[in-house]
Automatic annotation (TrEMBL):
Domain Peptidase S8/S53, residue spans: 115-489
GO BP term, pick one: proteolysis
InterPro entries in alphabetical order: PA_dom_sf, PA_domain, Peptidase_S8/S53_dom, Peptidase_S8/S53_dom_sf, Peptidase_S8_Asp-AS, Peptidase_S8_His-AS, Peptidase_S8_Ser-AS, Peptidase_S8_subtilisin-like
Keyword NAD appears in the UniProt entry: no
Statement: the UniProt record of this protein carries the keyword Protease: yes
Limits of the PA domain: 313-389
GO molecular function, one term: serine-type endopeptidase activity
Name of the molecule in the record: Peptidase S8
Length: 723
């Protein structure tokens, strides 16, 4: 078996007993073959290299520590595989926690479970275990960056400080001034992302293996990538961890609102992938009465709440750079680009602004965040709305009113959507609050948003379920969550698409004691290439009550060209479980090619309740990304070779990568071209001569398959440093 190589390098200074003082590195190598035999090879041939850990379950590799030259010598061994550049694996709970746990009749603290005795691992940027709300429940962990047993967040002086893992941990199990979902849970931190929240696939996989070895019941990964495929290495590691008995909770990603934006490891088949909905919120918006124009304001993470009541004039402040116009008592409208959001806001604040609105410099909306040093409200709007304000408000010297609307149980626009490529799975699985979530951070509390905040809500709920049902498997725990989820509706009262919300919003009380347990409840029929075809999905239904229950399926208003085949009604005795077939026939001569795919809901009924089960059918007309995730870097310690990696969900007749000047968009040269490329992870090497002149380029990847042509752009660097 061949294994991919990913390496993370961290430098530190030590003085070995017999070596001269040199710069020391801690790295994780993936190797081909038996990692224990490779450990023996290192011990025999490289006595000054310490083997810190051997990975042999989810990862075939070793963690080693040594000086530069010794590490370089080890990496020359032919068993050492590819290395790729480090990736950023994406990184008012006081309102969202009771919102999830309470109902209208009973207070949330009436739930008799607190996660006691349940081990939850947080794979992230580390945990500030000195926080007074976390120190009681923190039990240990491991640092996969420094290769030691101190998974503390990155602090000042160690690189760009981090807060993400501490925020996630607080949502799960804070127990102090703030209470998490499971306030008596045992928290373990696994630091896989270093300064600035940056880490590599190998660190994430190694962290999963370490957490599995440490006996975690649940692992939360509020991180992700742009690779939409079920067989990317991190997704496969998550699947394997679930088979080993650990429930895996993954953030679905923040790349919405477009389809196909879910990324690995949330693409894992067996994971619980979590999208972001809203807790009870009071959302501000601008209103212009003459044109009856409304402009929603999206608060930035970390910003002060928008509480303005009086109307204030708006002033266009360019990109927020340098000297700005008089902003005293006014709202600054600033274009995105150039400075960071924090720098823009602080500059506007210094010039007297009462609030800041940042509009996009490209189509659509965006989300962002500011640091706590910003003391005025900061929101984002679309490019279209920003241009409208400039033309109709600022240039005409009119004012906008600030109004508010109360929202709850809506989907966050940034939440990534499915489906997954290749196996055409429905993701996310479920949703939880992920907007304006206040939780613990080093030295205090802060409000953040993202599916990173939604996932730990589900991890905390799983801890409650695991305490209530300690012998339930990960599949049963997942089934309990999904079987009892509440589908959300849009403004017209229609159910939101399953590729947006999965099975719906988590219902904690119902999940603790589900009357019916459904496994394989998401009906994913795959990709239909024939004009007329019939396929089956298998659904397992279990009656968990103490009396017989009768079940039957139905579907209202099936799409044109689609016919479902339901089993006859059936009765299950108390505790009985049965697997039934739900078939579908698709006639693509009758289906609508205008739809991206065929999806919706079928109903499973018993005497008292209807459960909505999502279905997905991908047709021959469905458009989906044919390539993604180009990674390109120089080989470690081999300055004359480069390596690349990308993902092709269905393969390609031809793949071409062309380089363009990122400023002028002038074509420079073709980097490489390949034909008849198989599906999955695609990798290769280029010589220094083939790579060409050093510099930063815009790489345009063009893919052709069965007459369909697609392309996408990705920045790459040739050479070891930016020019």
């Amino acid at each position: 078996m061949r294994w991919l190589l990913f390496i993370w390098v961290l430098t530190m200074w030590l003085v070995p007993a017999v070596h001269a003082a040199t710069e020391e590195q801690s790295i994780i190598l993936e190797v081909e073959g038996n990692p224990h035999e490779f450990k023996q090879y290192i011990e025999r041939n490289h006595p000054f290299v310490e083997v810190v850990h051997v990975y042999d379950t989810l990862l075939q590799g070793v963690a080693i520590r040594g000086d530069d030259q010794d590490i370089e010598d080890v990496q020359q061994h032919p068993q050492v595989q590819y290395r790729f550049p480090v990736q950023t694996y994406e990184t008012n709970v006081n309102e969202s926690v009771p919102f999830l746990l309470e109902d209208r009749k009973e207070p949330f603290n009436d739930i008799p479970y607190t996660g006691k005795g349940v081990k939850v691992g947080v794979i992230d940027t580390g945990i500030d275990y000195s926080h007074p709300d976390l120190e009681k429940n923190f039990k240990g962990g491991y640092d996969l960056v420094d290769l030691d047993e101190d998974p503390m967040e990155t602090k000042e002086g160690q690189g760009e400080p981090t807060i993400h893992g501490t925020h996630v941990a607080g949502i799960i199990g804070a127990n102090g001034k703030m209470k998490g979902i499971a306030p008596d849970v045992e928290l373990y931190g696994y630091r896989a992302l270093g300064p600035g929240g940056v880490g590599s696939s190998v660190q994430v996989i190694a962290a999963i293996e370490q957490a599995v070895e440490d006996g975690m019941d649940i692992i939360n990964l509020s991180l992700g990538s742009s690779i939409n495929g079920p067989d990317w290495p991190t997704s496969m590691a998550v699947d394997q961890a679930t088979r080993l008995g650990v429930s895996m909770v993954i953030a679905n990603g923040n790349s919405g609102p477009d389809l196909w934006t879910v990324g690995s490891p949330a693409t894992s088949t067996k994971a619980i992938s979590v999208g972001a909905s809203t807790p009870p919120l009071r959302i501000p918006y601008f209103y212009e009465a003459l044109n009856k124009k409304t402009i929603p304001l999206m608060p930035m993470s970390g910003a002060k709440p928008w509480t303005l009541r009086q109307s204030l004039p708006l002033v266009h402040a360019g990109k927020g750079e340098g000297d700005l116009p008089d902003l005293y008592g006014k709202i600054a409208l600033i274009e995105r680009g150039g400075l960071t959001f924090t720098e823009k806001a602080l500059n506007a604040e210094r010039h007297g602004a009462k609030a800041v609105v940042i509009y996009n410099n490209e189509e659509g909306v965006f989300q962002g965040g500011v640091e706590p040093s910003v003391t005025v409200p900061v929101t984002s709007i679309s490019k279209e709305d920003g241009e409208w304000i400039k033309q109709h408000v600022i240039e005409q010297s009119t004012w906008l009113e600030t109004e508010y609307v109360s929202v709850v149980d809506t989907m966050a626009s940034f939440s990534s959507k499915g489906p997954v490529t290749w196996n055409w799975d429905i993701k996310p699985d479920i949703v939880a609050p992920g907007v304006a979530i206040t939780s613990t951070v080093p030295a205090g509390y802060q409000s953040l948003q993202g599916t990173s905040m939604a996932a730990p809500h589900i991890a905390g709920v799983l801890a409650l379920l695991k305490e209530a049902h300690p012998h339930w498997t990960p599949d049963m725990l997942k089934a309990a969550l999904l079987s009892t989820a509440k589908p959300l509706e849009d403004e017209e009262g229609k159910l939101i698409s399953p590729v947006v919300m999965g099975m719906g919003k988590v219902d904690v009380r119902a999940a603790l004691e589900p009357l019916t347990l459904i496994e394989q409840g998401r009906l994913t029929y795959g990709r239909f290439l024939k004009e007329r075809e019939t396929r089956q999905a298998h659904v397992s239904v279990q009656n968990r009550t103490d009396r017989p229950r009768t079940y039957y399926f139905s579907k209202k208003d099936a799409p044109k060209g689609v016919r479902f085949h339901f089993p006859a009604s059936f009765t299950l005795s108390p505790g009985e479980k049965r697997t039934v077939e739900v078939g579908v026939t698709v006639n693509q001569r009758l289906t609508s090619p205008a739809e991206p795919f065929i999806h919706g809901w079928v109903e499973l009924h018993d005497e008292a309740k209807t459960i909505h089960l999502p279905y997905l059918i991908v047709t021959k007309d469905t458009t989906f990304p044919h390539a993604m995730g180009l990674e390109f870097t120089i080989k470690p310690y081999k300055k004359t070779e480069y390596q690349y990696r990308m993902y092709l969900p269905i393969g390609a007749d031809q793949v071409t990568v062309e380089l363009y000047d990122p400023d002028s968009l002038r074509f420079v040269r073709t980097l490489f071209s390949r034909e008849e490329v198989k599906r999955g992870v695609v990798k290769g090497t280029l010589t220094e001569k083939m790579a060409g002149e050093e510099g930063v380029y815009l790489a345009v990847v063009s893919v052709s398959k069965d007459g369909v042509h697609q392309s996408y752009a990705s920045p790459i660097m040739i050479g070891e440093s930016y020019p």
